[in-house]
Amino acid sequence: MGEQPQPLAANLGWLLGQASHALKTELTAALEELGVSPRGHHVLSTALQGSYTQTELAQTVGLDKTTMVVTLDELERLGLAERRPSASDRRARIVAVTPAGEAKVREAEAIAARIQADVLAALPGRERQALLDGLARIAAGEH
């Protein structure tokens, strides 16, 4: 990333944007070898945590409706997920992860953990968890 311009060195938005871009670029390249995008990985790993409708999953992951449809179309084409009728609402579809999708999530999690550890290695050990905890609170809207 290089040296930061002085006015931006303390600008949280700029710093988060730069860090996010660097991490996303590295993660995208690494997951490309598995044939899945970071967005696809997020959808699959979240869908494994419960029984989500397509709309609920989009809200949970933070995707708009169109992006979710495109993502699920791709995951279905790859045989990693399926849309199944909901038992409680015949109009809704539950997103189910296939066994191939579960295997892909395990592989992607290992890659993501390695990249995250590499990125966090720039910080002293005691600061790593503090950074993650603080960002989690910010992302949850805790002010």
- The spatial strand order of the largest sheet comes to 1-2
Described by strand count, sense and barrel closure, the largest sheet is: 2 strands, antiparallel
Rounded Rg? 18 Å
Span from first to last CA? 29 Å
Instruction: List the total number of helices.
Output: 6
- Low-pLDDT regions: none
Average residue-wise pLDDT: 91
Topology as a string of helices (H) and strands (E): HHHHEEHH
Helix content: 55-70%
Tally of DSSP β-strands: 2
Structural class: mainly alpha
% residues in beta strands: 5-15%
What does this structure look like?
A two-stranded antiparallel ribbon has the order 1-2. The chain is mostly helical. The chain is built from six helices and two strands, in the order ααααββαα. The chain has helices at 12-32, 38-47, 54-61, 65-77, 99-120, 125-139, and strands at 81-85, 93-97. The protein is globular and about 55 Å long. Helix content is 62%, strand content 7%. It starts with 11 loop residues before the first helix and ends with a helix. α2 crosses α3 (54-61). The mean pLDDT is 91.
Structure keywords:
143 residues, globular, 62% helix, mainly alpha
Brief account:
Helices cover 62% and strands 7% of the residues.
Helices, strands, pairings?
Elements: H1 12-32, H2 38-47, H3 54-61, H4 65-77, E1 81-85, E2 93-97, H5 99-120, H6 125-139
Antiparallel strand pairs: 1-2
